[in-house]
Every structure is written in structure tokens, then in C-alpha cells.
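Progress report, Aim 2. The chain analyzed during this reporting quarter is listed below.
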Amino acid sequence: MKNILKHIKFIPAVLLLLVSCESLDLAPEDRFTDSNYWTSVNKAQTFLNTAYSQMQNSSRFFYNEALSDNAYNGRGDNEGAASIAAGIYDPSLGRIKGEWNDRYSGIKTCNLILENIGRVPDADPAVIARMTAEARFIRAFQHFQLTTWFGDIPLVKKDPSLEEASTISRTPHAEVVEFILDELDAAIPALPKNTQLVPAERGRITVGAAAALKARVLLYESRWAEVAQVTEQFMANTYGQYSLFGSYEGLFATQNEYSSEDILSLQYVPVDRMWGEFFDMAPISAGARLNGLAPTQELVDSYIMTNGKRINEAGSGYDENNPYANRDPRLTGTVVYDQYNWKEADGSSKTIYIKPGSDPNASAPDEYAQGSSKTATGYYTRKYYDVQHTTSLNSGLNLMLFRYADILLMHAEAKNELNQMNSTVWDRTIKALRTRAGFTDGAALAYNSSLGQTGLREVIRNERRTEFGMEGLRIFDIRRWKIAEDVLNGYAHGAQFGVSSVDNGYLRVNLRTFDPNKHYLWPIPRDERLINPNLSQNPNW
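Predicted C-alpha cells for the chain:
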């Protein structure tokens, strides 16, 4: 897929002029039309590549973390993160409009493909069937993102006329979900397994990707028995061969792209197609600029001790004066903290001093200064830092949308909610993840049945948080668990750098507000409702 992305140009659907034929049915020769575009598989593939490119972007991938309690956006209002986190947005917010418009643009691209790909002459039916399945997957993915944010949405199964687009009404969420699941079931038979991909096809949608999306849709609907069934089949290699990559930190390195854990990724190519969010996420001394996205103390506190205990548990051994010692190794793979050992591609390393006064040599200004362009929380991000970056920390590293660790955690959550958690399930899921992360203490790896369903629920939920920290999934989890009002009201904090006794010296960086009576659903964009009065609004907006 990277090869495809490198050599084929993307064409926005709006630029493909699907105009009616003129008299005598003569097609214009100076532009694409519905009669002269669909003439080859290569042209259809170009259109399909556009649909791939519309699935997600790197900015939302990262800044969705700042919508949750995992991160703080301290620079501008990237992807609406500051406004949404503070609860001060309305139906005119740019992120709200952008999410709606971009995803419906993606749906339009898919519908145009599905309505026209059958016209490609002399094409291999198996090739057309596979491309059709990929388009159906992407269309399902776009609808899933929309209904997750907005609830009831217009379900668009075909490219609408202008009149239809301006009068369409919202489809109930449950009906949209069933459409998504039906689309995935229909796509699966025509998709290859990951083991069937040749190198040039890596990154294309597979059976595994469709099954992973299906499991996530069912998870968000709390359809536990079905989640358990799909993930069990996944773990039995029904949908392809996947496994945890051997190194948690190495999983996010360029040399390990397309690992055994990668189910589906956003595709990037050095020079030709890159992302640059780390310019606002890495330490200043590592080449970054104004810090925009920083992990919170709340995220850092969620990483357990190497003995398996939470930091506030009796017997954990947690030392507030040495807070990063003996912690879940995934903390070091995700978050940059004071006196962090920062490594580069050439094998060199340096200590990142963040806390004021922590540099014993005072060789450089510390990385934190209140009100400055440095980190507002006292933390930076390491996960997905590309040591092979180009100027301004631009990266061609793929960003994983679905990975095998999520299959394991979905399975664990579903089995626990069904009250079917046992040592076998634990060992296949939580123990496997912790072992890969680097835990060796038997207490952290052993199944503890005395926790009961409620206690295990908290363990599994926290495991999701630390496994996927800074990967953009937390906001969806706290919404589906209906705990957003508990974790998104009050201050988000930074490191214990404060001189005040307020909050025991932990920095207050952002006051969050989440109203459970309205914020679980985003408002339908104001502009859309002005154009189409048939679009109703969500409650209390």
C-alpha cells in the first residue's frame, strides 16, 4: 500500500465531474465524466485510494487524546480539543463541522465507487469484488465514526441528489449500527487474510480489519456475547494470523511497521505523504517547537507498579519523591517525564530535564516553565516518535487504527461482563499483554479471582488506558462506559512542580467541564441544519 500511495495521485471526489452526457452522447475530452472515467482498474484504484485517505488523519488520531483525561492541548484549539474539553463549544465549532463534512465526503467517495466500479470493462471479477469490499468497509467505518459522535445520523447508502441531500433526515443509531454490521459481514468473504498479502499490498483492508471493526462496533454497543464470539474467532486465527509484537516500545518504531500486531494502519510514506504532530509533542531539546499536546498527570498515575498494584494501594511501594521508578514499563514507552533517557536512531541518548532545577549542571534551561512554550503539564510524548524523522520532526511512520492488543482487551472485557472471566481468559489476555510489556513479578501476572467482576472491570479498563495511552481511544472508552462526567469535570493536572499546597503541588493546567445531559452526543452542525431543516438536533443543544 505504501508503494501505491507513493506512485498514485489521490483525487478528491468533488473534482471528478460526473456530468450528464451532452447531445449525441459525446463525452467531453477535456475532463473526467461518468462516461469516460471508469475505464480501467487503475483509475478505479486511484478513486479507492482517495477513500482510504479520507478514513482518518494524524491530527485527529493524536488530538482526540486531549478530548479525554489523558492529555491537554495547550496551544490553540487543534481539532477543537480545548473547546470540547472545557465544555464551551456549540454547533458551530469547526471540529464538529469538520468531522461531519469530512466523513460524509468519505461516504460520497465510497458510494461513487460502489455505483460505478461495475462499469470497468474487462476487469477480473475477483479484483472488482475485493475493491467493492474495501469500499464497503470504509463506508461502514465512516458511518461508525459519525454515529459514535452524533448518535442518530443520515444513513447514506447511495450518492444522493442535491434535493435528497437537502431533505434527508436522521436515521436511528440502532439502524445505522445494523447497517454497519451487515456491510462488514458482506465484505468479509471478498477480502484476503493478512497472510495472503504480497508486500506491495501491505496496508490494504483485510478480513482481519473487517473483523476488528466489527468487534469494536459490538463493543461500543455492549453486545458482550457477540464481542466474545468475534474475538475468540480472531484469536483462533479464523481471520488471519496475528500476535503481539515482542516489544511494546518497538511496536511503534518505523522498522517494525506491518508487524504481527498491526491489523490496519493509516498509511504514510517518507517525503511523499507525512505527518508532523510530533513537532508539538516532543521535548523542545529534541527539536520540537511550541508544545501543543501533553500527557496529563492523570494518565501518568494510571500506570501501575511492577508488582501489579495501583500507586495508591497499600504495599505498592510508590514513592512520590521518585514517582517513575518501578512502574509499568509502558509508561516509559509512552510518556517523557523528568530525567527521561531520550534515545535517538544513532544510539545516542540524553537526559531530558523537565522539572525546574533538576539539571545538576544547569547546562540548558529546563523543559518546563509556567506560561512558556514548553510543556504545560511537565510531560511530553514518546510513543510514535520517529527516530528517522525529517525536518520539523515530520514522519512517514504508519499510525495503527487497529492492533491485536485491542482484540485481546475486547475479549477480556466481554468475558468479564459476561461473568466468564477465569485464569485461562486472564492468561490469554491481560497476562499476555503485561508479559509483553516487561512485567516479571508474579503478583502482577497472576489472576486474582478475589477481585470479583467489579474489581476485574476496573483492572481491565485501566489496562486499556495504559496499553493505548496517546493512541486516541480513551475518549471513546469513557463515553461508552458512561464515566465521562466523573473524569472530565474538574482540573486536569500536571506534574508535582507547583510551589502551592493546592492539589499537593500538582499543576492545575486545565479546568474541564462535561455535562452528561448533553455532552455524550455532539450537536448536529449548525450549518447543516440551516441547509436542511429535516435534521433534528440532539438533546439540550
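The beta strands are 71-73, 262-266, 293-295, 335-336, 340-343, 349-352, 380-381, 399-403, 490-493, 508-512. DSSP finds 21 helices and ten strands in the chain. These observations will guide the mutagenesis work planned for the next reporting period.
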